[in-house]
Amino acid sequence: MKAVILAAGKGKRIDSVTNGENKCLLKIRDKTIIEYNVENISRIDEINEIIIVVGYRSHDIMSKVGNYYNGKRISYCIQKEQKGLINALEAAKYAVEDNDFILILGDEFIINNNYSSAIKRFYEKKYNCMIGIVEVDDITWLKRLIQLK
Questions:
Q1: What integer is the mean pLDDT of 1-20?
Q2: Fewer CB within 10 Å: C terminus or N terminus of the chain?
């Protein structure tokens, strides 16, 4: 199984916070959002490769993350034009090939994730597709962290 992280967007709506950097490089506490995502995914035994779709300021993400993390190979696909999520996913289709994959939005992260149990259920139930969502009661703590930047 592969993991695909979509990290190509600029984040125009939060430009006042990112100061022109890629939004996935926004720091929360001691790490960037992309680092949280790569770290979380690298812990999943079923994942053998992480594919990051980059676009805006791609070199910044590539130099931050590198080509390996925690023993997992990291490869990059370029989204040439920012035309939304589907276009970003399409940029990774040849890297994914016919493999099962988990899709992560690069500008979001889950601290206490349960990816492994979701993957286990995906295979046990022989699903073709599975979508996971997380309900958050209160995000004021996150807003405060971002404002501290």
A1: 76
A2: C
